[in-house]
Design goal:
The complex is a heterodimer of chains A (256) and B (474). Chain A has 256 residues and is α+β, with helices and mostly antiparallel strands. Chain A has a single domain (23-252), classed as outer membrane lipoprotein receptor (LolB), chain A (Clam). Chain A is built from 5 helices and 13 strands. Chain A has helices at 2-20, 24-35, 113-116, 121-127, 131-134; strands spanning 41-51, 54-68, 73-82, 90-94, 97-102, 107-110, 135-146, 152-162, 171-177, 183-189, 195-207, 210-220, 226-237. Chain A has a 13-stranded antiparallel sheet with strand order 6-5-4-3-2-1-13-12-11-10-9-8-7. Chain A is globular. By secondary structure, chain B is an alpha+beta fold. Chain B has one domain (64-473): Porin. Helices cover 16% and strands 42% of the residues of chain B. Chain B is built from 8 helices and 18 strands. In chain B, helix 6 packs across helix 8. Chain B is globular and about 80 Å long. The chains are: A alpha+beta (256), B alpha+beta (474). The interface between A and B is large, with 107 and 101 residues.
């Protein structure tokens, strides 16, 4: 009897060791690939804001996204479509180079990383962030948590610490489903340690050759009555020349 | 490859089974977050094409009513006094059409229905049309652009004063607010040809605006033309502008400008750089040949017949044309919570009034009767500076604040304090906009000009005003 138990335990330990061979960095890199296509693309982002559970407002924008081979981070050009009062406004989000263009004033204004977070365009930036590029992750454990549809998911629970100035948040807690590498949930913290946002991912479907989450629910942890759903759709590969990331290109950005 | 294939993960889960799952279950509080999710059905992905149409236009109607209070016993009373009330209904349209893959037509304009104290009704000035822009944009090769028509060409990284915004002169038309942000929007473009090339490491732009009209006297709110493009305000002289940006380091791309008009050349530069996560520092400079503000006002007044030749004997600060500088230097700072952005700037206008000039202005004005030619000449200099979007004094400090989701979601508070550092007088404006819905916005604006009777803002005939407005977007 003992003879049969010992090999089984050994096999289990071997398998466990193999599982731990997946480093935290590799898990994060793999889940980044689930969220972000490998080639430049455009997508539409529709945001619905809720206050106290009631729909309050809508924002729609077109996002042009391209990975910077140097930083391995996505750079985004965002053009507002809705609401009508913001139609045509554009934001360039390229690492530290952040510019806002208003077609009414017809000038481009440089904005800080903090100021970027005030506008809804930052959500597009957050959703396409390559966490592996800016954060040092560690695996805190394996947990079964409910996803946004209250289905249990077996997840790696990761702790990500910012390691570059480009990181928007100081710390992120992240739950990634084992096997599929689907992002399930994230918690985003300020420098002070204060929890700022809770994000759930849901509505996984095939987009640009892979199964990706097409909807995120962003809960304001400071004022829990506020929540925003972000729906990505209309994915299409698009050639995006480097010159598009010049601030002087912003007035010429066309959404066809 | 270190990442475990899916079957191995599945086997591990099977081996350790439920025990492992129970041992690793998330903390109870984790699933409490689910209760914060709005109860709504998951959305389906949106198709891209229908959304894009909204990006090509902005159309709204607005109604604004303004009440002002006037000061008595001014050191010098301007002719005419500003109205004590104004009602304005307007239709504002900005729209672009894609004529083919490389050709666009862009239009921006406003139709105003106005009534104000002293204007009379009905009157052809009750209805005015501002043609801000109408031009063709052609992209024959990728990132090479040629534009022709009336174009609002703007420059500058500062917020309160833009020395390099060379096409701002005389272009602002009847703004609803004196907020510099609004002044940038409520202005006429210039008839011009423009070529621009944008490449990976920078851009280069050249613009030529021809002379198609003659200089005209400074407009007041009582002599605006109903349907007239008013090229006399924007194309009374031929003008050139050349500007370029170059990436000199990661995230650092200064802009340099050269501008020529009426035989005078001005050079300019813009620089903005992030400092940490919350601060952007910026500098905007322009320098070139110009007269003092009084000297240039006198020349303009003589040319347009707005000022008698005798005014030369009473205007303070007359100084011949020479190299003069204009500067705006400042920084923005954004707080995480609450969401407030502050801009603090220092403005310098070498051509503006010094303390001695102001003292002379008030000394002369004290002896001028209301409505007298002498008072008219003194006020003409200030009207000229305002018309040219030029600072009247040497030095100003400017602080602006914008607070998003102030106290309650969808309430935006903004305001600024513009302080004349020569005499300490100030202009304070506070505004509140509440976004009732995606389509409706209501707002209020309060303005106060404060200072001693013999100071820049304290000597203005208008002590303050309150504006109420409602906007419907389409």
């Amino acid at each position: 009897m003992k003879r049969s138990v010992i090999p089984a335990l050994g096999l289990a330990l071997l398998l466990a060791a193999a599982a731990h061979a997946q480093t935290a960095a590799e898990i994060v890199a793999a889940t980044d690939k689930v969220r972000n296509p490998a080639q430049p693309f455009r997508a539409t982002l529709r945001l619905t804001e809720y206050i106290g559970g009631r729909e309050r407002s809508h924002d729609s924008m077109v996002v042009f996204s391209k990975e910077d081979r140097g930083t391995q981070q996505f750079r985004n050009l965002v053009q507002y479509v809705e609401p009508a009062r913001d139609a045509g406004k554009r934001v360039l989000l390229d690492g530290h180079s952040l510019w806002f263009y208003d077609p009414d004033s017809k000038v481009s204004v440089r904005i800080s990383a903090q100021q970027r977070l005030i506008g809804q365009a930052a959500i597009g930036d957050i959703l396409t962030v390559n966490l592996a590029a800016d954060y040092t992750p560690t695996v805190l454990g394996i947990e079964k948590i409910d996803d946004a549809t209250r289905q249990p998911r077996q997840c790696w629970h990761l702790d990500l610490k910012a390691r570059t100035d480009a990181a928007t948040y100081n710390r992120v807690e992240y739950w990634v489903e084992q096997g599929s590498f689907y992002p399930i949930k994230g918690k985003f913290y300020a420098d002070s340690g204060r929890l700022l946002k809770i994000v759930y991912f849901r509505n996984f479907s095939e987009q640009l050759g892979a199964i990706r989450p097409t909807e995120s629910i962003i809960i304001d942890a400071v004022d829990a009555t506020l929540a925003t759903t972000a729906t990505l759709g209309g994915y299409a590969y698009q050639e995006i020349p480097e010159a598009w990331f010049q601030r002087d290109y912003l007035p010429h950005l066309e959404v066809k | 490859m270190k990442i475990a294939p899916r079957p191995l993960v599945a086997l591990l889960l099977t081996v350790f089974g439920c025990a492992a799952a129970r041992a690793g279950d998330g903390p109870p509080g984790e699933d409490q977050d689910l209760n914060l999710i709005p109860q709504t059905a998951p959305a389906t992905p949106q198709p891209g094409a229908p959304l894009a149409a909204g990006a090509l236009q902005k159309i709204y109607v607005e109604d604004a009513v303004t009440g002002s209070w006037l000061r008595g016993s001014l050191v010098a009373a301007p002719p005419p006094l500003p109205p004590r009330w104004e009602e304005r209904a307007l239709l504002d349209v900005r729209k672009e059409w894609h004529l083919d893959d490389a050709l666009r037509f862009l239009y921006s304009g406003r139709l105003n229905l106005r009534a104000e104290e002293g204007l009379g009704f009905p009157n052809h000035e009750n209805l005015t049309s501002d043609l801000r822009e109408a031009y063709l944009s052609w992209e024959p090769r990728e990132r090479l652009f040629f534009d022709v028509g009336r174009i609002n060409l703007k420059s500058g990284v500062a917020l309160g004063f833009n020395p390099t915004d060379y096409f701002k002169t005389r272009a602002v038309v009847e703004p609803l607010s004196v907020d510099p942000v609004v002044l940038r929007e409520d202005r006429l473009g210039t008839l011009m040809l423009r070529a621009q090339r944008v490449w990976d490491g920078g851009s280069l732009m050249a613009a030529y605006a021809p002379r198609v009209a003659s200089d005209s006297p400074i407009y007041t709110s009582f002599d605006l033309r109903s349907f007239n493009p008013m090229f006399d305000r924007t194309n009374a002289h031929a003008r050139w502008l050349l500007k370029g940006t170059l990436d000199v380091a990661y995230g650092l791309s200064p802009e340099v400008l050269a501008y020529a008009s009426e035989g005078r050349v001005r050079l300019g530069a813009n620089l903005a750089e992030s400092v940490g996560q919350s601060v952007v520092a910026y500098l905007e400079w322009s320098g070139g040949r110009q007269g003092s503000v009084s000297e240039d006002a006198l020349a303009f007044g003589r040319a347009t017949g707005g000022l008698p030749a005798a005014a030369a004997g009473v205007l303070p600060g007359l100084a011949p044309v020479g190299f003069r500088n204009e500067l705006a230097v400042g920084a923005s700072y954004t707080t995480a919570l609450p969401k407030i952005t502050f801009n603090l700037e220092f403005h310098y206008e070498q051509a503006g009034f010094t303390g001695a000039d102001w003292a002379e202005w008030f000394r002369t004005g004290a002896g001028a009767g209301a409505g007298s030619p002498l008072a008219g000449a003194l006020w003409y200099v200030r009207d000229y500076a305002n018309d040219q979007q030029q600072l009247i004094s040497h030095r100003f400090a400017f602080l602006r604040m914008d607070w998003v989701d102030a106290f309650v979601p969808k309430l935006e508070l903004s305001g600024f304090i513009d302080t004349d550092l020569v005499d300490g007088s100030l202009r304070l404006q506070l505004g509140a906009d509440y976004y009732l819905s995606d389509r409706w916005t209501v707002g209020a604006l309060a303005l106060i000009d404060s200072g001693g009777r013999r100071s820049d803002f304290g000597s203005l005939p208008q002590g303050g005003s309150v504006l109420l407005r409602a906007v419907r977007y389409f």
